[in-house]
Amino acid sequence: MLHEDRSRAESFGQDAAAYHAERPSYPPALVDALVDPPVRDVLDVGCGTGIASALLTARGARVLGVEPDPRMAAVAREGGLEVEVAAFETWDAAGRTFDLVMSAQAWHWVDAAAGSARAAEVLRPGGRIGLFWNFGRPTDAIRDALGAAYAAAGESDLERHSVLLGNADDRLTGTAAALDTTGAFGRVAVRAFPWVREYGRDAWIRQLFTHSDHAALPADRRAALSAAVAEAVDGLGGTVALDYDARLVTAVRRG
């Protein structure tokens, strides 16, 4: 199970500042869905450096982050977020409850069964859970160019399993099933919010290596892949305009 691979789960903090600078945000329509109906108290599970928390704070919510990596938490605190360092499954809520439990790009690092039960415990009746991810949906031209670059660098297996590069995984269905199993939530819905972000060549390469599978590469393989990808992006005109689907798994806590 991916959440058991703690070396990957804790790789993001190796350069938390780069993660904060390079990772994409989330589209306004998704944030609209999270705050409709309005929410006051929000728990952000695996808040990282606070990218998603800031979007909810800007909408007037009071956000508390829970983050297992103190290096990521430190960056979030610099941005003004209150963060408690702990794994969500064992975090002490101290009797606190919330209108919204959310997790942005992080729920797959939580044990799905234990995390779903824990979320039900800390949600107020009628409160909601909102778990979301950005999934890349590259055009054929981008996919072909980058696929060739990964092959040239000997990293085709990495490309075939990258969610960023349009490869599906089962995290949405697994997440929904775990919420259903608790019996604490109403109907689980999965919604998609398409959006686009454009990257220059260097920005594209920097954000690639904020992903745990890329960050885990040894230095020589990272260098080879960076060079191949740089050449591919130059061939695309120097930019990558990546279509994303931000996908939200959401349900309401039964009364």
Describe this entry's structure for a reader.
The chain has 255 residues and is α/β, with parallel strands linked by helices. The chain has a domain at 2-137 and 166-196 and 244-252: 3-Layer(aba) Sandwich (Rossmann fold), CATH 3.40.50. It is built from twelve helices and seven strands. It has helices spanning 6-9, 16-22, 28-34, 51-57, 70-78, 112-122, 140-152, 156-160, 171-182, 201-208, 212-215, 219-235, and strands at 41-45, 62-67, 82-85, 98-104, 123-136, 189-200, 239-252. A seven-stranded mixed sheet has the order 3-2-1-4-5-7-6, with helices on both faces. Helix 4 links the parallel strand 1 (41-45) and strand 2 (62-67). Helix 6 crosses helix 9. It is globular, with a radius of gyration of 18 Å. The protein starts with 5 loop residues before the first helix and ends with a strand. 40% of the residues are buried. Mean pLDDT is 93; it is low at 2-6.
Summarize the structure.
By secondary structure, this protein is an alpha/beta fold. Helices cover 41% and strands 24% of the residues.
Q: What shape does the CA trace take?
A: globular
> How many helices does DSSP assign?
12
Number of strands: 7
SSE order: HHHEHEHEEHEHHHEHHHE
Quickly give the CATH architecture of the domain at 2-137 and 166-196 and 244-252. 3-Layer(aba) Sandwich
**Strand order of the biggest β-sheet:** 3-2-1-4-5-7-6
